[in-house]
TrEMBL record:
Membrane topology value: Multi-pass membrane protein
Localisation per UniProt entry: Membrane
Annotated Gene3D superfamilies: MFS general substrate transporter like domains
InterPro entries the record matches: MFS_sugar_transport-like, MFS_trans_sf
Keywords: Membrane, Transmembrane, Transmembrane helix, Transport
Domain of life: Eukaryota
Segments passing through the bilayer: 24-48, 68-87, 157-178
Signal peptide per UniProt: none
GO MF term set: transmembrane transporter activity
Name recorded for this polypeptide: Uncharacterized protein
Length: 200
C-alpha cells in the first residue's frame, strides 16, 4: 500500500507540463520521495518505540501495543491533504486520443492555477497537428534506428547513455532485490528478529 507507485505517474505528469529547459526539475521531484520516507520514520520512531509491548513480554495486550495504530492515525491526517489537490488529466494524452478541446481546457486551468493566462486555442492545436503530420510524412519515410543512434552520436552522449542505462538497471535490480530477497534471506537464516531488535 503506497510504496512508490505514484513515482512514475508524477514523473510523467511533471515532464508533460514543463518546458524542455526545465526538465532538470525531475531530479528534484525524486528528492521528495526520500524526504517523505525520512518524515514517515520521524513520526514512526517515537510512537512505535514508546507505545509498543516490551520485547520480553509474554502477553501483549492491545492497550500496550498502540504505537503502530497511533502512527496510522497520524498518517491518516497527512493522507487527507491528497484531497486538496486536483490532478488534471495529461493534455498530451487528451490530444493523442483526439480530445483537443479538453486538452486546451486543462491547459487553461493549469495556467489559472499558476496565476497566469494562455491564449492557446483548439484551432492552434489543429493547425500545429497538421503541420507535424505533413512534416512526419516528408521527413520519416520509413522506420529505422536513427533515434537510437543519436544517443551514441558523440563520445559524451555514448558515455551518458551507457551510464544512465546501467544505473537504471542497477537501481531496478537493487530495489527489488533489497525489498523482496533480503527479508526472505533473513527469515531463512533466522536473523530477522535480531536485525529488527538492533534497529529499534
Amino acid at each position: 500500500m503506497g510504496v512508490g507507485g505514484n513515482l512514475p505517474v508524477d514523473s510523467a505528469v511533471l515532464l508533460d507540463l514543463i518546458p524542455d529547459t526545465h526538465q532538470y526539475l525531475l531530479t528534484l521531484l525524486n528528492v521528495w520521495w526520500s524526504v517523505g520516507s525520512l518524515l514517515g520514520s520521524f513520526f514512526a520512531w517515537p510512537l512505535i518505540a514508546n507505545y509498543s509491548c516490551p520485547e520480553n513480554a509474554s502477553v501483549c495486550e492491545r492497550a500496550d501495543n498502540m504505537g503502530w495504530r497511533y502512527l496510522l492515525f497520524t498518517l491518516l491526517f497527512w493522507f487527507l491533504r491528497l484531497f486538496y489537490f486536483d490532478l488534471f488529466e495529461s493534455p498530451r494524452f487528451l490530444i493523442s486520443i483526439g480530445k483537443d478541446a479538453e486538452a486546451v481546457s486543462i491547459i487553461h486551468k493549469i495556467a489559472k492555477y499558476n496565476g497566469t493566462t494562455t491564449n492557446l486555442s483548439v484551432e492552434q492545436l489543429t493547425e500545429a497537428a497538421e503541420k507535424v503530420a505533413n512534416l512526419a510524412v516528408l521527413v520519416v519515410p520509413r522506420y529505422g534506428l536513427q533515434h537510437v543512434k543519436g544517443l551514441f552520436s558523440t563520445t559524451k552522449m555514448a558515455i551518458s547513455t551507457t551510464l544512465l542505462v546501467a544505473l537504471w538497471a542497477i537501481i531496478g535490480l537493487a530495489y527489488f532485490l533489497y525489498n523482496s530477497f533480503l527479508p526472505n534471506l533473513y527469515d531463512s537464516l533466522q536473523v530477522l528478529y535480531i536485525f529488527l531488535y538492533l534497529t529499534v
